[in-house]
Specification:
This protein is α+β, with helices and mostly antiparallel strands and about 70 residues long. It is built from 3 helices and 2 strands. Helix content is about 50%, strand content about 15%. The termini are far apart.
Length: about 70
Protein backbone atom coordinates (compact mmCIF):
# COMPACT_ATOMS: atom_id res chain seq x y z
CA UNK A 1 0.00 0.00 0.00
CA UNK A 2 2.85 2.37 0.77
CA UNK A 3 4.38 1.82 -2.66
CA UNK A 4 1.08 2.79 -4.31
CA UNK A 5 0.79 5.99 -2.26
CA UNK A 6 4.40 6.91 -2.97
CA UNK A 7 3.88 6.34 -6.70
CA UNK A 8 0.72 8.46 -6.73
CA UNK A 9 2.49 11.22 -4.82
CA UNK A 10 5.45 11.11 -7.24
CA UNK A 11 3.19 11.41 -10.29
CA UNK A 12 1.18 14.20 -8.67
CA UNK A 13 4.38 15.98 -7.66
CA UNK A 14 5.84 15.80 -11.15
CA UNK A 15 2.58 17.04 -12.63
CA UNK A 16 1.88 19.91 -10.21
CA UNK A 17 5.05 20.94 -8.38
CA UNK A 18 7.60 21.29 -11.15
CA UNK A 19 8.33 24.20 -13.46
CA UNK A 20 6.49 22.54 -16.34
CA UNK A 21 3.52 21.84 -14.05
CA UNK A 22 3.42 25.52 -13.07
CA UNK A 23 3.55 26.62 -16.70
CA UNK A 24 0.70 24.26 -17.61
CA UNK A 25 -1.46 25.46 -14.70
CA UNK A 26 -0.70 29.12 -15.38
CA UNK A 27 -2.27 28.85 -18.84
CA UNK A 28 -5.66 28.30 -17.16
CA UNK A 29 -5.23 31.16 -14.66
CA UNK A 30 -7.82 33.92 -14.84
CA UNK A 31 -7.06 37.02 -12.76
CA UNK A 32 -10.76 37.80 -12.33
CA UNK A 33 -11.06 34.62 -10.20
CA UNK A 34 -9.29 36.56 -7.44
CA UNK A 35 -12.10 39.17 -7.26
CA UNK A 36 -14.13 37.67 -4.43
CA UNK A 37 -16.78 39.55 -2.42
CA UNK A 38 -16.20 38.99 1.31
CA UNK A 39 -18.89 41.25 2.84
CA UNK A 40 -20.97 39.43 5.43
CA UNK A 41 -18.73 36.36 5.51
CA UNK A 42 -16.57 35.07 8.35
CA UNK A 43 -13.21 33.38 7.93
CA UNK A 44 -10.99 31.51 10.39
CA UNK A 45 -7.32 31.65 9.44
CA UNK A 46 -4.66 29.60 11.18
CA UNK A 47 -1.14 30.96 11.42
CA UNK A 48 -2.34 34.48 10.76
CA UNK A 49 0.26 36.21 12.93
CA UNK A 50 2.81 36.24 10.08
CA UNK A 51 3.51 35.27 6.50
CA UNK A 52 0.85 34.09 4.08
CA UNK A 53 -1.78 33.78 6.83
CA UNK A 54 -1.32 37.41 7.85
CA UNK A 55 -1.50 38.69 4.27
CA UNK A 56 -4.61 36.60 3.64
CA UNK A 57 -6.29 38.02 6.76
CA UNK A 58 -5.42 41.58 5.74
CA UNK A 59 -6.81 41.09 2.23
CA UNK A 60 -10.06 39.61 3.54
CA UNK A 61 -10.41 42.55 5.92
CA UNK A 62 -9.89 45.00 3.03
CA UNK A 63 -12.68 43.23 1.17
CA UNK A 64 -15.11 43.58 4.10
CA UNK A 65 -14.97 40.10 5.62
CA UNK A 66 -14.74 39.17 9.29
CA UNK A 67 -11.51 37.36 10.22
CA UNK A 68 -10.98 35.13 13.25
CA UNK A 69 -7.24 34.80 13.70
CA UNK A 70 -6.00 31.52 15.19
CA UNK A 71 -2.40 31.91 16.37
CA UNK A 72 -0.05 30.52 18.96
Amino acid sequence: MSLLRNTVWLVKGLKEYTNSGFITASKNFTESDLDVECNGRSYMITGSNSGIGKQTALEILKRGGTVHMVCR
